[in-house]
Amino acid sequence: MSYKVIQWATGGVGRAAIEAVLDHPDLELVGCWVHSEAKSGKDVGEILGIDRVGVTATNDMHDILAMEADCVVYTPLFPTEQEVLDLLASGKNVVTSVGWVYPFKTMDLTAINEACQQGNSALHGTGIHPGGMTERFPLTLSALSRAITHVQIDEYSDIRTYGAPNVVRDMMLFGHTPEDARKSPMVQFMSHGFMQSIDMVADELGFNLDPKKRTIHDLSVATAPIDSPIGIIPAGHVAAQKFTWQGLVNDEPVITATVSWLMGEENLEPGWAFGPEGPRYEIAVSGDPDMQMIIHGCHPHSVEAGLERNEGIVVTALHCVSAIPYLCEAGPGVKTYLDLPLISGRAAPEFQK
Ligand SMILES: NC(=O)c1ccc[n+]([C@@H]2O[C@H](COP(=O)([O-])OP(=O)(O)OC[C@H]3O[C@@H](n4cnc5c(N)ncnc54)[C@H](OP(=O)(O)O)[C@@H]3O)[C@@H](O)[C@H]2O)c1
Question: How far is the CA of 290 from the centre of ligand 1 (A)?
Protein backbone atom coordinates (compact mmCIF):
# COMPACT_ATOMS: atom_id res chain seq x y z
CA MET A 1 0.00 0.00 0.00
CA SER A 2 1.36 3.39 -0.94
CA TYR A 3 0.29 6.55 0.92
CA LYS A 4 0.18 9.81 -1.04
CA VAL A 5 2.08 12.61 0.73
CA ILE A 6 2.22 16.40 0.39
CA GLN A 7 5.15 18.33 1.88
CA TRP A 8 4.25 21.74 3.39
CA ALA A 9 7.31 24.10 3.26
CA THR A 10 10.80 23.32 2.09
CA GLY A 11 13.05 24.64 4.87
CA GLY A 12 15.57 22.36 6.57
CA VAL A 13 12.96 19.98 8.00
CA GLY A 14 10.85 20.06 4.83
CA ARG A 15 13.72 19.23 2.48
CA ALA A 16 14.83 16.32 4.69
CA ALA A 17 11.21 15.12 4.82
CA ILE A 18 10.97 15.13 1.01
CA GLU A 19 14.15 13.03 0.74
CA ALA A 20 12.72 10.61 3.31
CA VAL A 21 9.35 10.35 1.52
CA LEU A 22 11.07 9.71 -1.82
CA ASP A 23 13.08 6.87 -0.22
CA HIS A 24 10.24 5.35 1.82
CA PRO A 25 8.86 2.09 0.37
CA ASP A 26 5.28 2.87 1.46
CA LEU A 27 5.10 6.56 0.50
CA GLU A 28 4.67 8.60 -2.69
CA LEU A 29 5.25 12.36 -2.94
CA VAL A 30 2.32 13.96 -4.79
CA GLY A 31 2.47 17.65 -3.83
CA CYS A 32 4.48 20.43 -2.25
CA TRP A 33 3.52 23.83 -0.78
CA VAL A 34 6.15 26.55 -0.56
CA HIS A 35 6.02 29.90 1.23
CA SER A 36 8.45 31.54 -1.15
CA GLU A 37 7.10 32.86 -4.46
CA ALA A 38 10.49 32.24 -6.05
CA LYS A 39 10.17 28.48 -5.42
CA SER A 40 6.55 28.26 -6.63
CA GLY A 41 6.25 26.57 -10.04
CA LYS A 42 9.57 24.76 -9.68
CA ASP A 43 10.03 21.01 -9.69
CA VAL A 44 10.73 19.75 -6.16
CA GLY A 45 13.96 18.16 -7.40
CA GLU A 46 15.19 21.59 -8.50
CA ILE A 47 14.41 23.06 -5.06
CA LEU A 48 16.41 20.27 -3.39
CA GLY A 49 19.23 20.26 -5.95
CA ILE A 50 18.54 16.65 -6.91
CA ASP A 51 17.15 14.93 -10.04
CA ARG A 52 13.73 15.95 -11.29
CA VAL A 53 10.96 14.51 -9.11
CA GLY A 54 7.94 15.28 -11.30
CA VAL A 55 6.12 17.22 -8.55
CA THR A 56 5.67 20.97 -9.00
CA ALA A 57 5.71 23.21 -5.91
CA THR A 58 2.90 25.71 -5.40
CA ASN A 59 2.35 28.57 -2.98
CA ASP A 60 -1.41 28.49 -3.55
CA MET A 61 -3.13 26.65 -0.72
CA HIS A 62 -6.18 25.95 -2.89
CA ASP A 63 -4.03 23.75 -5.16
CA ILE A 64 -3.03 21.72 -2.12
CA LEU A 65 -6.57 21.44 -0.72
CA ALA A 66 -7.86 20.22 -4.09
CA MET A 67 -5.23 17.46 -4.32
CA GLU A 68 -5.97 13.89 -3.43
CA ALA A 69 -3.54 12.86 -0.70
CA ASP A 70 -3.41 10.79 2.46
CA CYS A 71 -1.11 12.97 4.54
CA VAL A 72 0.54 16.40 4.72
CA VAL A 73 3.92 16.82 6.44
CA TYR A 74 3.36 20.32 7.87
CA THR A 75 6.70 22.02 8.72
CA PRO A 76 6.48 25.79 8.13
CA LEU A 77 8.45 28.33 10.13
CA PHE A 78 5.30 29.43 11.96
CA PRO A 79 2.17 27.28 12.31
CA THR A 80 -1.20 28.75 11.35
CA GLU A 81 -4.10 26.91 12.94
CA GLN A 82 -6.47 27.79 10.08
CA GLU A 83 -4.17 26.05 7.59
CA VAL A 84 -4.13 22.91 9.71
CA LEU A 85 -7.93 23.04 10.07
CA ASP A 86 -8.38 23.37 6.30
CA LEU A 87 -5.99 20.51 5.56
CA LEU A 88 -7.72 18.23 8.07
CA ALA A 89 -11.21 19.18 6.84
CA SER A 90 -10.15 18.45 3.26
CA GLY A 91 -9.57 14.82 4.26
CA LYS A 92 -5.80 14.85 4.74
CA ASN A 93 -4.03 13.57 7.82
CA VAL A 94 -1.45 16.03 9.13
CA VAL A 95 1.87 15.18 10.78
CA THR A 96 3.84 18.17 12.06
CA SER A 97 7.00 19.32 13.82
CA VAL A 98 5.41 22.60 14.97
CA GLY A 99 3.13 21.59 17.85
CA TRP A 100 0.18 19.45 19.03
CA VAL A 101 2.44 16.82 20.68
CA TYR A 102 0.02 16.51 23.63
CA PRO A 103 -2.30 19.52 23.46
CA PHE A 104 -5.15 18.27 25.64
CA LYS A 105 -4.37 20.34 28.75
CA THR A 106 -3.27 23.62 27.19
CA MET A 107 -5.28 24.11 23.98
CA ASP A 108 -8.91 24.36 23.00
CA LEU A 109 -9.25 21.51 20.49
CA THR A 110 -12.89 22.05 19.53
CA ALA A 111 -12.13 23.32 16.02
CA ILE A 112 -9.41 20.72 15.42
CA ASN A 113 -11.71 17.89 16.49
CA GLU A 114 -14.50 19.20 14.23
CA ALA A 115 -12.11 19.43 11.27
CA CYS A 116 -10.89 15.87 11.93
CA GLN A 117 -14.48 14.60 12.01
CA GLN A 118 -15.34 16.50 8.83
CA GLY A 119 -12.34 15.11 6.96
CA ASN A 120 -12.14 11.74 8.76
CA SER A 121 -8.54 12.75 9.38
CA ALA A 122 -5.95 12.79 12.18
CA LEU A 123 -3.33 15.20 13.52
CA HIS A 124 -0.02 14.07 15.04
CA GLY A 125 2.59 16.39 16.58
CA THR A 126 6.14 15.00 16.65
CA GLY A 127 9.77 16.11 16.24
CA ILE A 128 12.82 15.50 18.35
CA HIS A 129 12.81 17.89 21.32
CA PRO A 130 9.97 18.28 22.04
CA GLY A 131 8.27 15.47 20.20
CA GLY A 132 10.61 12.53 20.86
CA MET A 133 13.33 12.88 23.48
CA THR A 134 11.02 14.58 25.96
CA GLU A 135 8.21 12.07 26.07
CA ARG A 136 8.31 9.14 23.63
CA PHE A 137 11.73 7.85 24.73
CA PRO A 138 11.49 8.57 28.50
CA LEU A 139 8.15 6.76 28.60
CA THR A 140 9.70 3.76 26.82
CA LEU A 141 12.64 3.73 29.26
CA SER A 142 10.31 4.11 32.23
CA ALA A 143 8.85 0.65 31.59
CA LEU A 144 12.14 -0.82 32.87
CA SER A 145 11.79 0.88 36.25
CA ARG A 146 9.26 1.06 39.08
CA ALA A 147 8.45 3.58 41.82
CA ILE A 148 9.51 6.49 39.63
CA THR A 149 10.32 9.70 41.47
CA HIS A 150 11.83 11.87 38.72
CA VAL A 151 12.31 11.98 34.96
CA GLN A 152 15.07 14.16 33.51
CA ILE A 153 15.65 14.97 29.85
CA ASP A 154 18.67 17.06 28.81
CA GLU A 155 19.76 18.41 25.45
CA TYR A 156 23.32 19.70 24.97
CA SER A 157 23.82 21.28 21.55
CA ASP A 158 26.39 23.46 19.82
CA ILE A 159 24.15 26.19 18.49
CA ARG A 160 26.83 27.14 15.93
CA THR A 161 25.70 24.09 13.90
CA TYR A 162 22.16 25.43 13.43
CA GLY A 163 22.10 26.87 9.93
CA ALA A 164 19.40 29.50 10.47
CA PRO A 165 21.37 32.64 11.41
CA ASN A 166 18.28 34.85 11.45
CA VAL A 167 16.56 32.59 13.97
CA VAL A 168 19.70 32.29 16.13
CA ARG A 169 20.33 36.04 16.15
CA ASP A 170 16.87 37.61 15.91
CA MET A 171 14.63 35.09 17.70
CA MET A 172 16.96 33.26 20.09
CA LEU A 173 18.81 36.58 20.68
CA PHE A 174 22.33 35.12 20.76
CA GLY A 175 24.88 37.93 20.48
CA HIS A 176 22.53 40.37 22.24
CA THR A 177 22.97 41.84 25.71
CA PRO A 178 21.73 39.71 28.64
CA GLU A 179 19.02 42.32 29.31
CA ASP A 180 17.65 41.93 25.75
CA ALA A 181 18.05 38.14 25.67
CA ARG A 182 16.00 37.76 28.83
CA LYS A 183 13.06 39.08 26.78
CA SER A 184 13.54 36.37 24.12
CA PRO A 185 10.19 35.25 22.61
CA MET A 186 11.78 31.79 22.37
CA VAL A 187 11.06 31.17 26.04
CA GLN A 188 7.31 31.40 25.56
CA PHE A 189 7.37 29.74 22.13
CA MET A 190 9.36 26.76 23.41
CA SER A 191 7.49 26.55 26.71
CA HIS A 192 4.27 25.89 24.80
CA GLY A 193 5.81 22.70 23.36
CA PHE A 194 7.81 21.46 26.34
CA MET A 195 4.89 21.89 28.77
CA GLN A 196 2.86 19.56 26.55
CA SER A 197 5.60 16.93 26.74
CA ILE A 198 5.71 17.23 30.52
CA ASP A 199 1.93 16.77 30.62
CA MET A 200 2.16 13.61 28.54
CA VAL A 201 4.84 12.04 30.75
CA ALA A 202 2.96 13.04 33.92
CA ASP A 203 -0.37 11.66 32.71
CA GLU A 204 1.07 8.36 31.56
CA LEU A 205 3.24 7.78 34.65
CA GLY A 206 0.52 9.00 37.00
CA PHE A 207 2.08 12.15 38.49
CA ASN A 208 -0.63 14.55 39.66
CA LEU A 209 1.18 17.78 38.84
CA ASP A 210 0.74 21.12 40.57
CA PRO A 211 -1.29 23.46 38.31
CA LYS A 212 1.73 25.70 37.69
CA LYS A 213 4.93 24.47 36.03
CA ARG A 214 8.33 26.16 36.45
CA THR A 215 10.38 27.82 33.68
CA ILE A 216 13.99 28.92 34.22
CA HIS A 217 16.08 30.79 31.64
CA ASP A 218 19.84 30.99 32.35
CA LEU A 219 22.38 32.91 30.27
CA SER A 220 26.13 32.71 29.81
CA VAL A 221 28.11 35.58 28.26
CA ALA A 222 31.31 35.74 26.23
CA THR A 223 34.43 36.65 28.24
CA ALA A 224 36.29 37.44 24.98
CA PRO A 225 35.05 37.90 21.38
CA ILE A 226 33.67 34.59 19.98
CA ASP A 227 33.68 33.96 16.23
CA SER A 228 30.37 32.35 15.21
CA PRO A 229 28.14 31.85 12.12
CA ILE A 230 26.11 34.89 13.23
CA GLY A 231 29.26 37.04 13.40
CA ILE A 232 31.55 38.00 16.27
CA ILE A 233 29.86 37.84 19.68
CA PRO A 234 31.45 40.65 21.74
CA ALA A 235 32.56 40.11 25.32
CA GLY A 236 29.65 40.56 27.72
CA HIS A 237 27.06 39.48 25.14
CA VAL A 238 25.04 36.25 25.23
CA ALA A 239 26.91 33.18 23.93
CA ALA A 240 25.03 30.33 25.64
CA GLN A 241 21.50 29.81 26.94
CA LYS A 242 19.93 27.15 29.11
CA PHE A 243 16.16 26.68 29.33
CA THR A 244 14.63 24.49 32.05
CA TRP A 245 10.99 23.41 32.34
CA GLN A 246 9.74 21.50 35.35
CA GLY A 247 6.57 19.67 36.24
CA LEU A 248 6.11 19.90 40.02
CA VAL A 249 4.41 17.95 42.78
CA ASN A 250 4.15 19.96 46.01
CA ASP A 251 6.56 22.47 44.44
CA GLU A 252 9.26 19.79 43.96
CA PRO A 253 10.32 18.86 40.40
CA VAL A 254 9.27 15.39 39.21
CA ILE A 255 9.82 15.97 35.48
CA THR A 256 12.64 18.23 34.26
CA ALA A 257 13.47 19.06 30.66
CA THR A 258 16.47 21.22 29.80
CA VAL A 259 17.91 22.63 26.60
CA SER A 260 21.52 23.88 26.73
CA TRP A 261 22.66 25.74 23.63
CA LEU A 262 26.31 26.79 23.59
CA MET A 263 28.38 28.73 21.04
CA GLY A 264 31.20 26.24 21.61
CA GLU A 265 32.86 25.73 24.98
CA GLU A 266 35.45 28.49 25.12
CA ASN A 267 35.31 31.93 26.73
CA LEU A 268 31.97 31.51 28.51
CA GLU A 269 30.94 32.92 31.90
CA PRO A 270 29.52 30.88 33.61
CA GLY A 271 31.90 28.35 32.05
CA TRP A 272 29.39 25.83 30.72
CA ALA A 273 30.74 22.88 28.70
CA PHE A 274 29.44 19.73 26.99
CA GLY A 275 31.77 17.47 29.00
CA PRO A 276 33.42 14.31 27.70
CA GLU A 277 30.22 12.96 26.07
CA GLY A 278 29.96 16.06 23.86
CA PRO A 279 26.68 17.32 22.36
CA ARG A 280 23.95 14.76 23.05
CA TYR A 281 20.58 13.96 24.58
CA GLU A 282 20.41 12.35 28.01
CA ILE A 283 17.36 10.74 29.55
CA ALA A 284 17.35 9.66 33.20
CA VAL A 285 14.51 7.90 34.98
CA SER A 286 14.96 7.85 38.76
CA GLY A 287 13.23 4.82 40.21
CA ASP A 288 14.00 1.21 41.04
CA PRO A 289 16.34 0.69 39.28
CA ASP A 290 17.56 4.07 37.99
CA MET A 291 17.73 4.04 34.18
CA GLN A 292 19.82 6.26 31.93
CA MET A 293 20.06 6.60 28.17
CA ILE A 294 22.54 8.78 26.24
CA ILE A 295 21.68 9.41 22.63
CA HIS A 296 24.24 10.38 20.02
CA GLY A 297 23.56 10.76 16.33
CA CYS A 298 21.28 13.81 16.41
CA HIS A 299 24.26 16.19 16.59
CA PRO A 300 26.71 17.00 13.78
CA HIS A 301 30.39 16.09 14.21
CA SER A 302 31.55 19.63 13.44
CA VAL A 303 30.17 23.12 12.92
CA GLU A 304 30.87 22.89 9.18
CA ALA A 305 29.12 19.50 8.90
CA GLY A 306 26.11 20.84 10.79
CA LEU A 307 25.74 23.85 8.56
CA GLU A 308 25.85 21.48 5.55
CA ARG A 309 23.38 18.89 6.91
CA ASN A 310 22.27 19.03 10.55
CA GLU A 311 21.24 15.61 11.86
CA GLY A 312 18.98 17.25 14.45
CA ILE A 313 16.90 18.66 11.61
CA VAL A 314 17.05 15.40 9.64
CA VAL A 315 15.83 13.26 12.54
CA THR A 316 12.99 15.72 13.16
CA ALA A 317 11.87 15.19 9.57
CA LEU A 318 12.31 11.42 9.81
CA HIS A 319 10.19 11.24 12.94
CA CYS A 320 7.41 12.97 10.99
CA VAL A 321 7.76 10.77 7.91
CA SER A 322 8.10 7.50 9.82
CA ALA A 323 4.76 8.21 11.52
CA ILE A 324 2.79 8.57 8.26
CA PRO A 325 1.79 4.92 7.64
CA TYR A 326 0.62 4.61 11.25
CA LEU A 327 -1.22 7.93 11.33
CA CYS A 328 -3.07 7.17 8.09
CA GLU A 329 -4.62 4.09 9.73
CA ALA A 330 -5.35 5.71 13.11
CA GLY A 331 -8.88 7.07 12.61
CA PRO A 332 -9.98 10.67 13.18
CA GLY A 333 -8.76 13.01 15.95
CA VAL A 334 -5.56 14.19 17.61
CA LYS A 335 -3.24 11.18 17.87
CA THR A 336 -0.21 11.17 20.16
CA TYR A 337 2.44 8.53 20.80
CA LEU A 338 0.05 7.14 23.39
CA ASP A 339 -2.52 6.43 20.64
CA LEU A 340 -0.34 5.24 17.76
CA PRO A 341 1.36 1.85 17.52
CA LEU A 342 5.16 1.66 17.86
CA ILE A 343 6.52 3.91 15.10
CA SER A 344 9.62 2.56 13.36
CA GLY A 345 11.79 3.27 10.34
CA ARG A 346 12.12 1.06 7.26
CA ALA A 347 14.90 -1.27 6.09
CA ALA A 348 17.00 -0.69 2.98
CA PRO A 349 19.80 -3.31 3.04
CA GLU A 350 21.31 -1.98 -0.20
CA PHE A 351 21.49 1.67 0.96
CA GLN A 352 24.92 3.31 0.76
CA LYS A 353 25.71 6.69 2.39
N1 LIG B 1 9.93 19.72 17.42
C2 LIG B 1 11.19 19.72 17.08
O3 LIG B 1 11.99 18.97 17.63
C4 LIG B 1 11.65 20.64 15.98
C5 LIG B 1 12.98 20.54 15.51
C6 LIG B 1 13.36 21.37 14.45
C7 LIG B 1 12.47 22.29 13.91
N8 LIG B 1 11.21 22.38 14.43
C9 LIG B 1 10.24 23.33 13.87
O10 LIG B 1 9.93 22.90 12.53
C11 LIG B 1 9.64 24.05 11.73
C12 LIG B 1 10.50 24.00 10.47
O13 LIG B 1 11.86 24.08 10.85
P14 LIG B 1 12.98 24.32 9.74
O15 LIG B 1 14.29 24.09 10.41
O16 LIG B 1 12.64 23.58 8.51
O17 LIG B 1 12.79 25.89 9.48
P18 LIG B 1 13.35 26.73 8.24
O19 LIG B 1 14.54 26.05 7.65
O20 LIG B 1 13.48 28.12 8.71
O21 LIG B 1 12.18 26.61 7.14
C22 LIG B 1 10.87 26.96 7.34
C23 LIG B 1 10.18 27.16 5.99
O24 LIG B 1 8.92 27.75 6.27
C25 LIG B 1 8.56 28.60 5.18
N26 LIG B 1 8.37 29.96 5.70
C27 LIG B 1 9.22 31.01 5.74
N28 LIG B 1 8.65 32.08 6.28
C29 LIG B 1 7.41 31.70 6.61
C30 LIG B 1 6.30 32.35 7.21
N31 LIG B 1 6.37 33.64 7.57
N32 LIG B 1 5.16 31.64 7.40
C33 LIG B 1 5.08 30.34 7.03
N34 LIG B 1 6.08 29.67 6.45
C35 LIG B 1 7.23 30.34 6.26
C36 LIG B 1 9.69 28.56 4.17
O37 LIG B 1 9.30 27.58 3.21
P38 LIG B 1 9.77 27.60 1.68
O39 LIG B 1 11.26 27.65 1.73
O40 LIG B 1 9.23 26.34 1.13
O41 LIG B 1 9.19 28.83 1.04
C42 LIG B 1 10.86 28.09 5.02
O43 LIG B 1 11.85 27.46 4.26
C44 LIG B 1 9.93 25.29 12.61
O45 LIG B 1 8.72 25.77 13.13
C46 LIG B 1 10.79 24.73 13.74
O47 LIG B 1 10.60 25.45 14.94
C48 LIG B 1 10.79 21.56 15.43
Answer: 37
